[in-house]
Amino acid sequence: MAAENIDDVIDGLAAIVRDADRAGDRAGYFAALYRQVTVEVRNAIRGGRFDDGARMDRFDTLFGNRYFDAYDAWRRDQGGPRCWRETFGLLRAGDTIIVQHLVLGVNAHINLDLAIAAARTSPGEAIHALRRDFMLINDILARVVLAVQDAVGDVSPFLRLLDQVGGRTDERILDFNIRQSRQEAWYNAVLLAGQDDAEREETIERLDVRATVLARLIARPGGLVRPAVELIRRSESDDVQAVITHLDHAMEQRSAR
């Protein structure tokens, strides 16, 4: 699928969520999170929160198409970025917990795709004018992630208990800081925006390798984290369809709490 605007991105993500729901496919976990983030970005565009709403529509469309291309390539067994192959390849792993699937998708999309989409939206010196709008998405993303984390807690009781005792234990367990990753993505976007084709290809390869290494660490944490993940897995729902539906309504549920 190829989106032409942010509405197409939302429709495409909703289609993936529906298909995953019908099939009991864990691909719907990240797609549900991503759909809600994109809806909030569209609301911010329509609400005039960005300096350049039309530019953010183009940016979000390029960003979304990175995900769609990787998803379609994986479905057709036609390659795609290594970090996405690593992420999608774990969808059928029975020992991977819900929050791991979410963070695996976030890792690939932020640590690889985000910088590429930003540099393509605003190449050369134009990249600097994008910074404020780029960073504004941090606030939107944080709000949706908190809602989704609450929704995960509803279907993963031991994870909720760890959150209550330790405060957002899921993020610490997986050692993944979204805001820091987005800051690094911005630096890489500025780098890519000023590079020629050969340099850009080399940088993208490096970003893919790094995101792939992180994906493996997220999927197979070591030390004391491993038994904690196992306890979480045993407590959480294995009804994939129910989990997808719950995650896909996280923002509505948070508003009703």
Your description of this structure?
The protein is mostly helical and 257 residues long. The protein has one domain (6-256). The chain is built from 13 helices and no strands. The protein has helices at 6-23, 27-46, 53-75, 82-89, 98-121, 131-155, 157-166, 169-174, 178-193, 197-219, 225-235, 240-248, 250-256. The longest helix is centred in the middle third of the chain and has 25 residues, at 131-155. The chain is globular and about 50 Å long. Pfam families: DUF5995. InterPro entries: DUF5995.
Measured as a percent range, the helix fraction is over 70%
Give the SSE string. HHHHHHHHHHHHH
* Average predicted confidence as pLDDT: 88
Structural category: mainly alpha
Q: How would you describe the oligomerization state of the chains in this entry?
A: single chain
Extended strand count? 0
What is the molecular shape?
globular
Biggest β-sheet: count, sense, barrel?
A: none
Q: Tally the helices: what do you get?
A: 13
Spans with pLDDT under 50 lasting ≥5 residues? Answer: 171-175
How many domains, in number, for the residues?
Answer: 1
Tell me the distance between the termini.
Answer: 36 Å
Radius of gyration, CA atoms, in whole angstroms: 18 Å
Strand content: under 5%
InterPro entries: DUF5995
